Amino acid sequence: MKVCINTSTIRGRGLSLPVLASLVARAGWQGIEPWIAELEAVDKQPGGLEQLAQQLSDLGLEMPSAIGFSQWIVDDPAQRRAGLEDARRCMRLVRRAGGKRIAAASIGAHTQESRVIPNDVIAERFAALAAIGREEGIEPELELWGFSTNLKRLDTVKQVYRMAGAAGSTMLLDIYHLYKGESDLKGLSDIRASELGVFHVNDYPEIPAALIADKDRVYPQNGIAPGRQIIRQLKKSGWNGFISLELFNPEYDQLPVELVIRTGLEKTRELLNAK
Predict the structure, then answer these.
(1) Edge-to-edge strands of the sheet including 170-174?
(2) What's the mean pLDDT in 163-167?
(3) Which of 52, 120, 124, 235 is deepest in the core (most CB within 10 A)?
(4) Are 52 and 21 within 8 A, CB to CB?
(5) Into how many domains does the chain fold?
(6) Does an H or E element contain 200, and which?
(7) Average pLDDT, the chain
(8) Is 275 a residue whose pLDDT tops 90?
(9) What is the pLDDT of residue 274?
(10) What's the pLDDT tens digit per position in 67-123?
(11) CA 244 to CA 259: how far, in whole Å?
(12) Per the confidence metrics, is the pTM higher than 0.85?
């Protein structure tokens, strides 16, 4: 497995993506996972995304995934068409920057007011997104969100993904969201290596799943999450992709960015190498 940092972990200081990339590479990370807004900002600068792609290549840094929020899943047909076109636009940004995948979360169908969409309907909509991904050369990752009305549990995400049968797509799972959605970790045992894109790692303190929030995430090995058990299962499946550290902890935003980058890498490697 390779180690990647999601820029949510370190972006609270207003630094540009090229600056963050340099700091991340210098520390020894192998990948960086940006958000679409950061790619859009780079695209407005001289040299644009092509220059960023060259910088990442020169640094020996990969972009295995990016985080976007296109509304591909929503019920309203016109809104969904617009969401798919936005997804195409975002995929093109990712491709120009040298990226490979983009997260496909249940944005627009995730609040308490959202209806529960049948799995076969979500699968059909994800298949339409994946078809655009094949045209654009970018792999959409069906994302688990433990707080969402839809796609909140591992068993649901697996069923939707497999029903879609969409070539050129994967799933995006997350230690925190497995807990937040109260997923059964036994469900990891039948996941094939080819079904996983990037896997988000983090940890959390002893807070009930119903009350825990993104801000409560901490470095791997600093909480009560069964991270080592999860990593062992991923290794057993034969998966050897990128694990990406994704945190939203406001306390870390008060620390020097170099310290967070270095500590995050140390803790992520500890998790990866744990027996």
Answers:
(1) 31-33, 2-6, 242-245, 196-201, 170-174, 139-143, 101-104
(2) 95
(3) 52
(4) yes
(5) 1
(6) strand 196-201
(7) 97
(8) no
(9) 77
(10) 999 999 999 999 999 999 999 999 999 999 999 999 999 999 999 999 999 999 999
(11) 17
(12) yes
